[in-house]
Amino acid sequence: MLKNRNVNVSNSDHVGKISDGFQKQFGSGPDIIVRCPGRVNLIGEHTDYNDGFVLPMALPFETLIAASSSEDAQMKLISEEFGPAHFSLEDNPMGTSGWGRYIHAIGSLLAQSNGGLLGWNGYICSTIPIGANLSSSAALEIAAGMVFKHLGKLEITLTEIALIGQRVENEFIGVRSGIMDQIACALSQRDTALLLDCHTLQTSMVSIPEDVAVVIMDTGTRRELRSSEYNKRRESCESAALDLGVPSLRNASLDDITNLSNQTLRRRARHVVSENKRVLNTVKAFSTGDLLTAGQLFTDSHLSLRDDYEVSGPALDRIVEVSLGAPGCFGARMTGGGFAGSALALVARDEVNNFCKFVKANFTAPRTQPAETSVMLYVVEACDGVSVL
Ligand code: GAF
Question: Is 2 within the bounds of a domain?
Answer without folding.
Answer: no
